[in-house]
Specification:
Length: about 450
């Protein structure tokens, strides 16, 4: 790997570099939750509407209507945060966009088209609820689902390119022979996009289910709350084991394409065989300490043999090694994912035995926390992906420090943007709570049917 050298005339100060990275992290971390809901909620909403149309069940119809209205609010707020992110790409990282914009601009352009399609059909879907025949209205929501998934695919493919840059040649510091399709369809695109799209449905299902779990805990055990929980939790339950398989696929991709990143994730400092799998632990003085070590575990996971050689951090120069802090975020992601899988298994076994929810209140308490756990898994997964790529913003070609805007004032920008996100958070929560309380009186009051 070799860096093409700084593109900008002067380097940013260390403080401004940290401010730029923190601002991008806050913006991305905030937006990604809404982006996931924008992918998963339309599918769940259309499913509820379809069931209401087929069965005539008013509880399904009420679910669909309420979810659609909440979806409209979240889409509007997500459009704001997405616009902020698009500006930040150029304002914070002109060193990357100035040099490589022509290479990676295609997926951003297509994502913009997908966003407008999603916005147009979402507007039609919301406005025409009582103005179109039921079947036509249901069909009008399908482009919202397709466009949402497409948006996720194209944006994540751009991020995948940052991990596996392709589709260009670099001669004397100048980009030439640009192939934007090769850039977009780089080797990291399949594992990253599959992992992200499944995460979107997983987060949407668990977040929505957690709302109804709280209602069930508070004694609202009518059909409306029961269906609201079961529909959303079941969707997440179907996706969760698939997501764990996709996570293994992504990890094996790192073994082949980014072994130094895997070394940081697993806290492997020295290249060798018979490498243990360390669960937990903290990097201290060049070692991963205080964790649970499973002898030969990592070598067995990677190559199915204890003799499998694992590349360590010592294979790269000290200034090109990712920080081992990603080991902690990776463990949080995996731990959250498997905890959710156990919760899914709990419901699955109970439903198989007596066709009903678990009567233990601890299940509902855990389900009420499932949305937060899914968000933790999502956020820590993205931290692992982004921080694990450091010190590169474009793997092997451009360092993050060379891409940041050298103009002063990035620390002030961080404060302003942080304040904007605080206001957006408070406003969104207040609006959603007001919507929920203003319609509670219309919720069905039927008792739960025996399973």
């Amino acid at each position: 790997m070799s860096s093409a050298g700084p593109l900008l005339a002067s380097a940013a100060s260390p403080l401004d570099l940290v401010a730029a990275r923190e601002q991008m992290a806050i913006s991305l971390g905030w937006h990604i939750i809404l982006a996931c809901l924008g992918v998963g909620m339309p599918a769940l909403t259309l499913f509820a509407e379809w069931r209401g149309w087929c069965t005539g069940d008013d509880a399904y119809r009420l679910l669909a209507r309420r979810w659609a209205q909440a979806m409209g609010v979240l889409f509007a707020v997500g459009a704001v945060s997405g616009t902020i992110l698009s500006f930040e790409m150029g304002l914070l990282w002109p060193g990357m966009m100035g040099r490589y914009g022509q290479v990676i601009g295609l997926p951003f352009a297509i994502e913009g088209v997908a966003f407008f399609i999603e916005a147009i059909f979402l507007g039609i879907y919301l406005y025409a609820w009582d103005r179109l025949p039921a079947r036509t209205h249901l069909v009008s929501g399908i482009p919202v689902i397709v466009a949402g998934i497409a948006s996720a695919f194209f944006v994540v493919s751009a991020n995948a390119w940052m991990n596996q840059p392709r589709g260009f040649a670099l001669r004397d510091g100048h980009v030439s022979a640009v192939d934007p399709y090769a850039a977009m369809l780089n080797p990291a695109t399949p594992p990253e996009t599959i992992h992200m799209i499944l995460a979107a449905f997983m987060v949407s299902g668990f977040v929505m289910a957690s709302v109804y779990a709280v209602g069930l805990l508070r004694g609202r055990r009518d059909r409306y709350h029961r269906l609201g929980f079961l529909v959303s939790f079941t969707a997440a339950a179907i996706v969760t084991p698939l997501q764990i398989v996709a996570g293994d696929y992504a990890a094996r991709f790192l073994v082949a394409k980014q072994p130094i990143k895997l070394a940081a994730i697993e806290g492997v400092y020295q290249t060798g065989s018979h490498v243990p799998l360390t669960i937990g632990g903290f990097p201290v003085d060049g070692q991963l300490r205080y964790g649970l070590k499973i002898p030969d575990g990592l070598s067995l996971l990677v190559g199915f043999r204890p003799e499998t050689v694992i590349t360590g951090l010592d294979s790269a120069p000290a200034d090109a090694r990712p920080p081992v802090v990603v080991h902690l975020t990776f463990d949080l992601m995996v731990g959250s994912g498997f905890a959710l899988l156990l919760l899914v298994a709990w419901l699955g076994v109970t439903w198989w035995r007596r066709r009903d929810l678990p009567r233990n209140r601890w299940f509902l308490r855990a389900a009420a926390l499932a949305g937060a756990a899914a968000c933790v898994a999502l956020e820590t997964g993205w931290v692992t992906t982004e921080v694990g790529r450091q010190p590169w913003i474009v793997w092997g070609f451009l360092r993050t420090a060379d891409a940041v805007n050298p103009a002063p004032g990035l620390a002030a920008s961080l404060l302003v943007v942080s304040a904007v996100y605080v206001l957006l958070t408070v406003g969104t929560v207040l609006v959603l709570r007001r919507m929920a309380h203003s319609r509670r009186m219309f919720a069905p009051r039927q008792p739960v049917e025996a399973g």
